[in-house]
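Hello again,

I reread your note about wanting to compare the complex against the isolated chains. To keep things tidy I'm splitting this into two emails, and this first one only covers the full assembly. Below are the input lines as submitted, including protein chains and any nucleic acid or small-molecule components. They are followed by the predicted structure of everything together. The single-chain runs will come separately.
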Amino acid sequence: MMRLEVRELTAVYDTALGELKAVDDVTLKVYEKETIGVAGESGCGKSTLALAMLRLLKPPGRIKKGKILYDGENILEKRDEEIRQIRMKKVSFIPQSSMNALNPVLRIKDQFKDMMVAHGEDRNNVEKKIEETLSMVELKPYVMNFFPHELSGGMKQRVVIGMALILNPEILIADEPTTALDVVVQREILELLRHIKEKLGKTVILISHDMAVQAEITDRIAIMYAGKIVEMGDTMDIFKQPLHPYTELLISSIPVIGRKMRLKGIPGFPPDLRKLPKGCRFMPRCPKAMRGTCDEIEPSLIPIEKRREVACFLYEGR
Amino acid sequence: MKLTIFEKFRNVTKCGKTIKQVFKYTDFKIGFILLLSILSISVHGQFFIPESYVRIGAFEPSQPPQGLNLLGTDSFGRDVYAQLSYSIANSLIIGIMVAIIGTIVGSVVGFISGYYGGTLDAIVRIIINVMLSIPSLLLLLLIASFIKGALDFVSVSLIIGLFSWAWPARQVRSQVLSLKEREFVNVAKLSGMKGYEIIFIEIMPHMFRWMTVHFISTILYGILTESSLSVLGLGPQKNLTLGMMIYWALNYAALYRGIWWWWTAPVIILIILFLSLYLMNIGLERIMNPRLQRVG
Amino acid sequence: MRIGKNIERVITYLLSIIISASIVFIVPRLIPGNPILRILSSYLERGGTGVDIEKLVEDYKHLFGLDEDLFTQYIKFLSQTFQGNLGFSIVQFPRPVIDVIAESLPWTIGLLFITASMSWIIGTLLGLLAGWKGESSIFSKIFVIVAILSYAIPYYIFAIILLFLFALTLHILPAGGAYSVGMAPGFTLDFFIDCIKHATLPALSIILASLGWWFLSMRSMILTIKDEDFILMAEVKGLKRSYIMWKYAFRNAILPQFTGLALSLGSIVGGALLTEVIFSYPGIGWILYQSIRSLDYPVIQGCVMIIIFSVCTANLLMDLLYPLLDPRIGREES
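Full-complex prediction:
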């Protein structure tokens, strides 16, 4: 059953030098209980997509076109109060750099409390729930009396994850949950996410440029480049046999312990989203580019097999 | 191509780029234009109006603007416009002198304290805090009232300067402290640069930009303080500054006797002067701190 | 950590007081000749006016210990000053300086307290709204320009302009003094109203001169905070905008705003002094001004000491109170 659908969404930033298309005509279907990843380099539009999904885009960013359907209802048309109720209760969000996501002058428990009260909970009855949630994210309950600066980075991250869980939402959007953490803490957070996915049975949308993280947790992946989805499919399939050249490069850039190899990056830079080249956006950096085709027309996302789509002329006509 | 230290310094400071950059900001532009207008009044007055206009009895006293007297005359029969031209220059000179003392002394103190650290720094930091917490105007009033007879250009600038170094010192010190920690100083040290090279090429250029910002705001402070002292009767008695003009006007009851041109002229010029310096300051600060660039 | 910082603050405070007192002590003695004696002798020449000159000279010699060595003088001076003995006024001899000042203090405290707090509160709230609503509206731009004017124009200029406009031209409000000549001071409604009328222009002048800075600094603080991640998180949590403005933005921005108040105490007091002078408002600023004109040195010194002492003490109190507002001070990472 489809819980969330992003349909032909275009989100732009109005800059002095023109309209920057951060998300360009993206369609994404998220099914119940699945963990879907959105991967790509910095600047490919995945964070903008995540923010847009909860109508959190602020000027100069705005949604230009498209729909975001949650259980069939377009949230872009809802009133402010309705959206506020949906946030964290139906669809929750774990923002990037959770280090700074906490209000420096409020105790942890008050930061849970104000959210819970805003969603209708009784202000005198919240402590138990907060305790339970903190335990769930493997924090001792006394943490709730602390102020944010008294916690370490990893602890703050867990608090934010706890906030995203406490109202028992069906869908969780995690934006780069493991970036800016050291590897040990990263591992712990990953395990926590896995627990959320398996034990709690939630639907998770994982935004991350880290392909290794994507490989560990996700069932399906959408690869984004320069605002568009260029490949989509089951995680296993994509890692076994990446179709789009960009996907290939992304996967091969993951270093493997035990194997002596040169660190491979992806040559070149992402394009300027205000002045996009004609044709395929990846062409300037693509090792398999075909002159005459790739620089003339933009490839569209085409289903190749069941559950696999790719936007690349290499596979056109299959 | 081996660059001399001076050239390297200039490159890093990017003086030319800074100047071009700062002119892009509207507030700096407006401030600069206002300053230029005031300066041109002063220059015009000093070059084109005979000096005799400023002497007592040169004209009929208390005359409204008419004829030769663009801004009328005061109770002594002196031409107000001529006085204004000299006052503008004098006020600015005092401001600049205060700024020179304050910025140079402050920057040197702040720099040495920040760079060498240790007990010296701890002591200097406390001294700076003491200087900043004492309301300096009051001590200035005290000192000025005791040397009343000897109050002139130089002495006024000196005593105001005495209290103007603490703020630049604190800013420079905190800048140096944060720069000390930053990567490039360590890199320079590791790559074998000598002490003075580090100072000049890595640290000074940043300091230079900060000193420029402080210079303007210290000029503002100097003129503000001097005019406050003057209005209370403790300014350079024998000289004409904008504050002294207001003092004379108030003391000869210009407000009550309707001789409005005598006091409105210096008041309006002071307002424009402060505005211009403040606006220029905002523009410069924005370059120093890119985070401010978004803000109003 | 906290104790250490507080000790340093107290040390700075004590040093400030002692250094100021020392400056007050040294300055008269640096002048060649003794200005006090100079005035005394000029009074003597003019034959005096019923003042017992001999006793005056003796008392002063004794008070300042001018016959003793410098160090003893210094200690005596310090101990006397801190016991509240500020000497005698020359002009109003044998009235003690303390008396002269005590009479004027209530006026200054009343004026200053009310205007400084009103201006800080109003400026901060306006700054909060202006910052939160955003930069683009016309309203916002006008407010900013007005605030810049308020900040850039010195206190005494506001005083002069208001005096001219409302008192001398329009004759709506009195031109000076704390109450009308001939009014008997007392706890009557009439007197109270009269005081308010007289205090209006000085108060308005101080408020106009100080409002701008509070507005601008709060606004800029809010604009900066608006971009912070925790504000985004607050929205993610589904909180109402107005709640976020108060509990998230305001609550964080008020901290540096409070520090700003402590830092500007000195200049606000200076500005209030000048305002009193322009309006002949009989507070300590007016007394100071009069004593400067008549060269009543003991009163000058007394006023300077009292004002510096008050400002430094207020500063210290605010510094010590700050940790109560900011939970980040004094707690370490566990």
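For quick reference: Chains A and B do not touch (no CB pair under 8 Å).

B.
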